[in-house]
Specification:
The chain is α+β, with helices and mostly antiparallel strands and about 150 residues long. About 40% of the residues lie in helices and about 30% in strands.
């Protein structure tokens, strides 16, 4: 395995690139509402407003080799668990550089990553846009499967 760790100087340049991009997005679009950076975790907390899922946070973490993205999608289902998990597994098949997973307390998360060499305005737009589109397409159908009795009349 080659040593593809990024130097502190290179990581700082990537951080500054991401900071500039986030500031421009907050000022220009209605999706990204805010972004706060945590120096201790090297992580941004990006607040997003959607239509199907009104508000959520995307954690964007800068590591030595990759920029990681993660968002909480929803809690463990109350019912129809097999169909609920099948819904997400079938969606995984159609995703590029993103995947649904089961995390703490059996909640559903969506995560992905980019190699640091590929971090650019275009790739950031693509990743955040992909997360947004995936949440928009999967959230309500999953609610209706995993929490069906809450939607019955």
């Amino acid at each position: 395995m080659t040593d593809d760790l990024f130097s502190p100087t290179e990581l700082l340049a990537i951080k500054e690139r991401i900071d500039r991009w986030l500031k421009s997005r907050i000022n220009e679009d209605a999706v990204i509402k805010s972004a706060d950076f945590d120096d201790t975790e090297s992580r941004w907390y990006v607040r997003v407003t959607g239509e199907e899922k009104q508000h959520y946070m995307i954690l964007v973490t800068l590591r030595q080799r990759t920029l990681q993205f993660e968002t909480y999608v929803m809690p463990e289902p109350e019912e129809n668990k097999e169909d609920f998990y099948r819904h997400f597994l079938m969606r995984n098949h159609k995703l590029n550089n993103l995947a649904f997973s089961i995390g703490q307390e059996n909640a559903i998360y969506l995560s992905g990553e980019l190699h640091n060499q590929w971090v650019s305005e275009i790739s950031l737009d693509w990743m955040i846009g992909s997360i947004y589109a995936t949440i928009e397409l999967t959230f309500k159908p999953a609610l209706r499967i995993g929490f069906a009795s809450r939607f019955s009349e």
